[in-house]
Write a structure and sequence with these properties.
homodimer; 211 residues; mainly alpha; Arc Repressor Mutant, subunit A; Tetracycline Repressor, domain 2; 2 domains; 63% helix; DNA-binding
Chain lengths: 211, 211
DNA sequence: CCATCAATTTGAACGATGTTCACATTAACA
DNA sequence: TGTTAATGTGAACATCGTTCAAATTGATGG
């Protein structure tokens, strides 16, 4: 059950052990099932130990969130590029929503402003970098230069593009598909059948021009 | 401080008093600042009293959520209709996001599936009815018949339209505008200047047809 | 008018949580 | 090898949601 067994008094690398244990707990039981004491016990350590490595529960969860943003960014980066802007943007959005659907607890964590410290510099950078690929795909679709996407005026089309994926992701983890569909397997069929058609309706392929 | 003073042993209408007190607490301190004991104290009652009227904290918060959905629905219903589908849809979306921006705690509540009972029949109906006007506006924009919007296949365009507003609302209460803009008053300027242009870019007016 | 019953409310429990702190242990280093 | 700073312990503490026997009162029927 515990992440790391221990024979000596000191742990060795309790900091990362706590982060790993916390991610596992949130994966299994959701953010609402996470407690600092569970994480400590899972790392084989007393309840007071984490205080020496993190600034309270918020500090630990912030470190976990950084880890999750990097995972999300890696998944989006790994998605194939077809060279066709519309399809690439749809692929990015599909990846974003799929990540949320497959990791609802972790996605909820990175949206819980009350649980993590969004003023943390590392977290801000990780959250920006996670969306770099998505933002570039959106910029390509709308014919914008992809430079200076962050800390600048948020272009209307790109804000709209970000909102679509973010909104769909929240709708999925809030169970809205189950309310709007009559399927026995709401999330699965939503991701595989409904979502692609939604994305196609949102960002259709450019119509060919007759000569 | 307490919502209702009391001279007799029994309260009279503790059930609604608890709902009103809870809404006030969430307005002032957010969902994360809400505790059942605070609500009981605000209603001038002992910590164990709410159990006789609600099925635990989740039951009380579900009742509050129903109240909030009705407020949201009333605000969307009160928005003017211009007869121009594009503008009406933008107006509805602006109203939706504005409600979230002005009532972040309450909007967070109605999205917290872990805190409220989304299988509750009254809550489901309230959540549906709150979005009726928005759904009709989206249906008009996309040329759909507005019948049977609920419990049926969610049309791709309408799902997209719902996702945009929902995603923008979440982005606002998650503080994303503050990360993406350099304004001292992130939410205010976002709602008043950036958001309209985002919505216009999402659902532009139909282009006039030359004769 | 009164007695009985059911509905409410109390207040003290209980277990669990995050955090703190004096103390124990040990790794790192002079 | 001895000293120091880092790391972990375990017992506190306040607060939380929940439960339950006892207390109080409104309502009902004689």
């Amino acid at each position: 059950m515990s992440v790391t067994a221990r024979e000596s008094y000191h742990h060795g690398d309790l900091k990362t052990a706590l982060i790993v244990a916390s991610e596992a707990i949130i994966r299994a039981e959701g953010v609402e099932g996470f407690t600092l004491r569970k994480a400590a016990k899972s790392a084989g350590v007393s309840p007071g130990a984490p205080s020496h490595h993190f600034n309270g529960t918020k500090g630990l969860l912030t470190a976990v969130a950084i880890r999750i943003f990097k995972q999300l960014g890696a998944e989006l980066d790994a998605l194939p590029s077809s060279g066709m802007p519309a399809q690439d943007l749809r692929t990015q959005a599909l990846g974003y929503v799929t990540f949320a659907a497959r990791n609802p607890g972790l996605f909820r964590l990175i949206c819980r402003v009350d649980l993590i410290d969004f003023k943390d510099a590392d977290l801000m950078q990780a959250s920006f970098e996670a969306l770099t690929h998505y933002a570039h795909a959106a910029a390509a679709y709308f014919g914008h230069e992809p430079t200076n996407l962050h800390h600048r005026v948020f272009r209307p089309h790109m804000a709209s593009a970000m909102a679509t994926a973010h909104g769909l992701a929240h709708m999925v983890i809030e169970g809205r598909p189950a309310l709007l569909f009559d399927t026995p397997d709401p999330i699965g069929t939503f991701i595989e059948t409904a979502l692609p058609s939604i994305l196609l309706a949102t960002w259709p392929d450019p119509t060919s021009i007759d000569p």
